[in-house]
Write a structure and sequence with these properties.
Bound molecules: 6-aminohexanamide
Order of helices and strands: EEHEHEHEEHHEEEHHEEEHEHEEHEHE
Number of domains: 1
Strand content: 15-25%
Shape: globular
CATH class: Alpha Beta
Number of helices: 11
CATH architecture: 5-stranded Propeller
Strand order of the largest sheet: 1-5-6-7
CATH topology: L-arginine/glycine Amidinotransferase, Chain A
Number of strands: 17
Largest sheet: 4 strands, mixed
Length: about 375
């Protein structure tokens, strides 16, 4: 808000993910306390994701100096590999949120048309509650990417991860109270203050709050990107289960009621498409045993995995979709193909390896919009 209590307009907006991209940024998984067996399985699946996206847009993979050669050797030549330090590889959350200047399409204005928000990051909850104790390198990722691209950087003191917001590019933002109002993020800010920062920085005029994210998504405190995402303005996909005994059911039902009774920034009533979750899936003994001891949170056998098909990436003309070797895989592809008739739905087999680390394809990618 400005001094007169009017919302500040920075003159930029976050485009919807289906708007044209110039490239996609991905980090290279490495830390052995989060990625089992020294990250070999995760690296194989990250390569599949990068390769699949690179059929539709440029891809840059960032890897630490210790891993650069490994990444270079495993990735196809047309994928750029850049050296960058990081504490882990979730570029949705540690990369910049790219925004474009409103009206750049039509004006002769010479100001840059793409910029990036550099939110503050605290490892999804800080020293008590977060995923690891040292996030000093993660804090620099957005700045480094923006400097590589020579884009203006909008620093933001508010703690926020990109996976906790979705926008429709037409004035509406979706998020969860479980994450954004969690005391481990911005304890001194009210809901109204958080909402007004979202409006100012993302260029939205309406924020729709779901109470909770996916059941079991404890790493992120219920990021929206495993729970619900936009298909186009006025239409959303919601993680769903028909099983009333599954604790996911009450969360999905609660979200459905809110969404069906919401209108977006343009006054449209939302249409909800249900996307059944896989499983339930749980971490096995063998998977947990493959993890090294480190400063990361312990991962225990039997833990419910935060697996959902909503955590896909929208590339230029494609939906890059996690597959878990589960009975719901084909159904997810059917629903997504129907929801995105102009996109090719590409399956990423073995996405379980990403969910073992606490997220999925949307969480490891960051789209850079094409300059209008
Ligand atoms: O949901 C995401 N955007 C990221 C998941 C991060 C998990 C950290 N262990």
């Amino acid at each position: 808000m400005d001094l007169m209590g009017k919302p500040i307009d920075h003159g930029y907006r976050m485009p919807a993910e289906w708007e044209p991209h110039s490239q996609c940024w991905i980090g290279w998984p490495e830390r052995p306390d989060n990625w089992r067996d020294n990250a070999v399985h995760a690296q194989r699946v990250f390569v599949s994701v990068a390769q699949a996206i690179s059929r539709f847009e440029y891809v840059t993979v960032c890897a630490s100096s210790a891993q650069w050669t490994k990444a270079r050797d495993q990735l196809p030549k047309h994928i750029r590999v850049v050296e960058m330090s990081m504490n882990d590889s979730w570029f949705r959350d540690t990369g910049p949120t790219f925004v474009i200047r409103k009206g750049a399409e039509s004006s002769q204005n010479l100001e840059p048309s793409v910029a990036g928000i550099d939110w503050t990051f605290n490892s999804w909850g800080g020293i008590e509650d977060g995923c690891y104790a040292d996030w000093s390198q993660d804090l620099l990722i957005a700045r480094k990417i923006l400097s590589i691209e020579r884009f203006p950087r909008f620093p933001q003191t508010m703690i926020l991860e990109g996976g906790s917001i979705h926008v429709d590019g037409d004035g509406t933002c979706l998020t969860t109270e479980e994450c954004l109002l969690n005391k481990n993020r911005n304890p001194d800010m009210t809901k109204e203050e958080i909402e007004s920062e979202l409006k100012a920085y993302l260029g939205v005029s309406k924020v729709i709050w779901l109470p909770r994210g996916l059941y079991g998504d404890d790493d992120t405190n219920g990021h929206i990107d495993s729970m619900c995402s936009f298909v186009k303005p006025g239409v959303v996909l919601l993680s769903w289960t028909d099983d009333k005994c599954d604790l996911q059911h009450e969360r999905s039902l609660e979200a459905l009621t809110i969404l069906e009774n919401s209108t977006d920034a343009m006054g449209r009533k939302l249409r909800v498409i249900k996307l059944h979750v896989p499983g339930p899936l749980y971490m096995t003994e063998e998977e947990a045993n493959g993890l090294a001891k480190g400063d990361g949170i312990p991962r225990l056998p039997g833990t419910r995995l935060a697996a959902s098909y909503v955590n896909f990436y929208i590339a230029n003309g494609a939906i890059i979709t996690p597959q878990f070797g589960d009975m719901w895989d084909d159904e997810a592809v059917r629903v997504l193909s129907h929801a995105f008739p102009d996109h090719e739905v590409v399956r990423i087999e073995g996405a379980r390896e990403i969910v073992l680390g606490g997220g999925n394809i949307h969480c490891i990618t960051q789209q850079q919009p094409r300059s209008p």
